[in-house]
Design a protein that fits this description.
The structure is a homodimer.
Chain A (H helix, E strand, L loop, with lengths): L2 E7 L3 E6 L4 H7 L18 E11 L7 H5 L2 E3 L3 E10 L27 H4 L2 E7 L11 H10 L10 H13 L3 E7 L11 E6 L18 E7 L3 E8 L5 E8 L9 H8 L4 H23 L7 E8 L1 H7 L5 H4 L13 E2 H4 L8 E4 L9 H10 L8 E6 L3 E6 L4 E6 L20 E7 L6 E5 L7 E2 L1 H13 L18 E4 L2 E7 L10 E4 H24 L9 E5 H6 L2 H6 L11 E5 L1 H11 L1 H13 L1 E2 L6 H9 L12 H4 L8
Parallel strand pairs in A: 1-5, 9-12, 12-14, 15-24, 17-26, 18-20, 24-25
Antiparallel strand pairs in A: 1-2, 3-4, 3-5, 6-7, 7-8, 9-10, 10-11, 13-14, 15-16, 16-17, 18-19, 21-22, 22-23
Helix pairs in contact in A: 6-7, 11-16, 11-17, 13-18, 16-17
Chain lengths: ~650, ~650
């Protein structure tokens, strides 16, 4: 096959690329990172590069204007190498980091009656082996088994890597070693105990079968979000969460939502790359937690992992392709535990890593863990649990039954698919107020700097204000005849100017277009339609819901009043709303500590009835009815009606 | 650290080596292979090189004469780099290969009443999965479980690498796949069945749960000998051994006997190197068998491995150091099954590899497998089983009891430690007759060429003839006053010339020295003393033995009459001797086919009482008494006595 030389500027790196390969592949070959938020589908336009000279065929130019094309722009993910070329790579939008603040050293007590005597599954056993003699010359392995049997530990599963070090460990320690043993459902329920390590005895040992003194027994509870990875570092003896930290999922540059990631995973080395990226993020966060709490990575003997089904697939390097295609089948919803070394998790290499059970392709272990942590599975009265992150999943039920569905809301509420949208980091407008007479906005910006865009809570707030003040009508259409310079015809049709260029940090007007409003309305309608379908499926009314539990980072920053005003959340008394924060990582934390909790999550996963909305006839009607501000049926939103016609007119 | 340039001739390769490193390390760095039969102890002298110029310190010069040292010779394993140097590497003695003849296509029927319906542990199950629909959208894994459950297969253990391919395999096969499943004691007795693979359905399928048609289910039974690796390729459905092959263990160049190997394994990268070498040999033999029988390596789903304890350690990369040091403790005598991919065995990567149980450091799985194959464990009458290879192990017993010991006979009977000794390959004198009047020898040479040395059977035959014809006395001392040019004073003292230089293929006289005779007498005395100690330990006489079973390659070529004449084997009627060939590989073959056989080997290993000769007071006396031709107590050797004083005088 013919190869060509592709030279990238300004880095001046050159690589050879075969005919027919993509420019993104050449970029990767050159070690240049370029964001592909849509996963390389040519939909988002963020990977645009400028072809200075040479033979590059543009396969698709969606997102590029004819002026862009004339100026040499091409989408790297859609540009095919057909000859030598020189390509200019514009400076990339950096993913802002670290506005995710870690709750340093904020300890969390175990969320239930944790009793080490009953619950602790990883324990330290100081052993005193009989040194071998000619009269007692059994092999090291049998000698170790003999010492463990004295504590009632029999038929241990000992991994080969540990057997390889057995002789040296026992002799170096002069036959006084501490065995780290995991009991309970490793690889199979009621399976044999498993030896994880033999360590030097602590100068401050705990009683046999505990290990909280010098031994140090730790675990990590991990939630892999599409956007954010959260980790709790847990003391396995006291049950205390010592510390927690979070970081953006390193996969973001390869797709903002799960669909984009799945598409990216289907490309050549995409699956491996996404796996490496998310493990990189997890390992970085775990490393940070270990360092600042003076814990060795090798003292972390256990991990539980929550996350949506796609995230779990990518973490385990399972191809997620079929999750995206009807009838939406994952490879596995409840993977067996694996070893840390099998999945590249940088804790003790022989630590067990337990990915929690999910329900279906779009209701994953983050939701089952969330149901556990939220207490929904023990609720007496009708309860609705929602977790709106990059996806929107919801569960309706009581302690006796659970129904669930997932809405492909898309990442609009995380700022994607909106011209001036951005994530909730420094420079994002997070709340907006519009003057009902002048239609002039005021706003609050994260980090108190000049604005760079609008994040999810800002968008909800903005759309609600536009509606309440009558700038937009029930159908989301701008009233262009209002006397304000803020409303105008832009390149993409009608738009409202939130901030003039001079007041921003980006040198351009920050606007919300009619197309943006339509996107946001579709997203909120999908979620509300989900509520409706769940209620209808079991023959109840939404107003019968006694408690509405909101999990996820989104819930933490949302303004309920505004969310009700646009019809995203049902209109009910505010005291019924409960914001629980990251319920997924909390559920993983509970499962890390307790076999009961793990059994409960499994029972929850088995008990949940999943409703596939794309196969549900009532969904489309409910969705269409919700495609208004706040809804076709205003009787469902009495507090919004009470604000008067379009609220503050 | 200072580094120096070492240039090797005639290859003209140069490498840099730090001060204090060994010349063998520089040789390895240069990619030059040099034999170290003693494992780098400086004892054998085979790694001698010539220091042309430069700064090399000789740490030990055992095996080098002062003339050698003056001529520039140094032992590469004992020569320390202290500056730049130029070194000439003499042409190495090649390890002769391939005189081990494979019994091409000689099929062997299963050695017991093999009944696939009862015994077959790896089976093929053609499955027809329900294609997923929106109404039946369970994950691939659960769908597979459902299909397997219809055949009564539940709670399968499915390794992560297979889960990673599950989605693609099922879809490519359009939901019609054949599952390869192993049942029975994988990783734990009565554990769950294990999925090894999902393959395309055969166009010629077998009935469910069999798999002898197009699927092809094969296994390999492996015996790792210190000198020779032997493999049977077995059809797991019919139980037939389709073919077998053998090859010299690639570790030979790093030590001729287990002690040398253990020492070598203790050097820097020695352990990994020895593991790589033996796996290389096994993989080569398995590949040869697969190719000539039109079997894919991936169709080999199971392996059993016999071998002495050191060989099993090196195969599994377990450090063997403590095997050599009192009180002689191995890491493990009965390793759990591992996966082929864990140990680099190139069969199906998820095939189970079951190393059979041994008894102690010097009575390994080759002996327990041999006891099984020999039938000793079911013998009604007193039976003695011996396996003389590089080591000499023996077992005395009946179906009710077994005692065992190992003699460090050394590799004399494999031709090592004897000036003109060599392995039983082309050019080796394998049998000698001496004229009782002229003391002139005649001999037979393997391959019918001119001789190059003397192999084990040749040495036994030669020593017996020297004794019977009166050339040597009871003490092994040459009668130098006999009128023959064959007896003379050589460089190493008195010697007998077997072949004059002109008649050889090496241009030197082939001789047997007094020192050689002493070595051979010590080796045979150790073995005979072993018999004595075993008998004494249970209070019986050797003459009560009803059957003497001889396993191992050595037994195949030995001349019993001669072996009795030198006192290596006890003097008993010939019809009590039974030569069984390689009983270790035969036992591995039985264990491969049958769970009963595996349970029996385990029971044998547990039942055997091991006597450590170095800790046994009676051994030294028995050894000293046996340090004569044939023995101090001639009454134990009536047929030798019947030959007349010194036999043919």
């Amino acid at each position: 096959m013919a190869t060509h030389t592709i030279t990238f500027q300004p880095s001046n790196r050159a690589v050879t690329a075969p005919t027919g390969s993509l420019v993104v592949e050449a970029l990767r070959e050159a070690g240049l990172d370029i964001a592909q938020p849509c996963g390389g589908q040519g939909r988002c336009g963020r990977c645009a590069v400028i072809v200075g000279s040479g033979n590059i065929r543009r396969r698709s130019t969606i997102r590029l204007s004819s002026a862009d094309v004339a100026a040499g722009y091409a989408l790297a993910c859609q540009a095919v190498v057909e000859g030598d070329a020189a390509i200019l790579v514009p400076e990339q939008e950096k993913i802002e980091r670290r506005l995710i603040t870690d709750k340093t050293a904020r300890k969390v007590a175990p969320p239930f009656g944790y009793d080490p005597a009953r619950d602790q599954t990883v324990r330290a056993w100081p052993l005193s082996l009989d040194p071998p003699t000619l009269a007692d010359a059994v092999d090291d392995y049998s000698r170790l088994e003999r010492a463990l049997a004295r504590h009632g530990l029999r038929d241990l599963d000992v991994p080969l890597p540990l057997i390889r070090e057995l002789g040296a460990r026992l002799r170096e320690a002069d036959w006084q070693v501490t065995a780290i043993v995991e009991t309970d459902d490793w690889s199979q329920p009621n399976g044999p105990p498993r030896l994880i390590d033999l360590v030097k005895p602590s100068p401050h040992p705990s009683p046999p079968g505990r290990g909280g003194g010098g031994e140090g027994l730790y675990g990590v509870a991990i939630d892999i979000g599409t956007t954010t990875v959260s980790v709790h570092l847990v003391n396995l003896v006291t049950g205390e969460a010592l510390d927690s930290a979070a970081e953006y999922n390193g996969q973001i540059a390869r797709g903002e939502d799960v669909i984009s990631r799945i598409i990216y995973a289907g490309k050549n080395s995409g699956l491996g790359e996404l796996g490496t990226l998310v493990r990189g993020t997890i390992n970085e966060v775990v490393g940070r937690l270990a360092q600042r709490n003076h814990v060795e990575r090798d003292q972390i003997y256990k991990a539980t992992v929550a996350g949506n089904t796609t995230m779990i697939h990518l973490f385990l390097n399972l191809p997620p392709a079929s999750i995206r295609l009807t009838p939406y089948i994952p490879t596995v919803t409840h993977p067996r535990p694996v070893l840390a070394s099998e999945v590249g998790l940088e804790i003790h290499p022989l630590a067990g890593v337990d990915c929690l059970p999910g329900v279906a392709s779009y209701v994953g272990a983050d939701i089952t863990a969330g149901v556990l942590a939220s207490g929904l599975a023990e609720a007496e009265g009708l309860t609705l649990f929602i977790d709106v992150g990059t996806n929107g999943e919801m569960v309706l039920g009581t302690k006796d039954w659970l129904v669930t569905c997932a809405c492909s809301a898309g990442p609009a509420f995380e700022g994607a698919g909106v011209v001036c949208g951005m994530r909730a980091t420094r420079g994002a407008i997070e709340e907006v107020w519009i003057n009902g007479k002048t239609f002039e906005p005021t706003y609050r910006v994260i980090g108190e700097t000049r604005p760079r865009g609008i994040c999810g809570s800002g968008l909800i707030s903005l759309v609600a204000e536009l509606f309440i003040t009558g700038v937009a009508d029930k159908g989301g259409k701008f009233k262009m005849d209002l006397d304000t310079p803020r409303l105008r015809e832009g390149d993409h049709g009608p738009e409202y100017v939130v901030a003039w260029a001079g007041g921003t940090d980006i040198g351009r007007d920050i606007v919300l277009t009619k197309v943006d409003v339509d996107n946001l309305m579709r997203a909120k309608a999908a979620i509300y339609a989900g509520f409706s379908v769940l209620a209808q499926s079991v023959g109840v009314e939404l107003k019968e819901v006694e408690r509405l539990l909101i999990g996820g980072a989104f819930g933490k920053y949302i303004n309920v009043e505004k969310a009700v005003q646009i019809g995203l959340l049902p209109d009910m008394p505010w005291d019924k709303f409960h914001f629980l924060g990251n319920t997924a990582v909390m559920g993983a934390y509970m499962a890390l500590l307790s076999r009961d909790a793990r059994a409960q999550i499994k029972a929850i996963a088995e008990k949940m009835t999943y409703i596939e909305l794309s196969a549900d006839n009532t969904f489309y009607d409910a969705f269409t009815s919700a495609l208004f501000l706040p809804h076709t049926d205003m009787s469902k939103f009495p507090t919004v009606v009470a604000l008067g016609k379009n609220g503050r007119a």
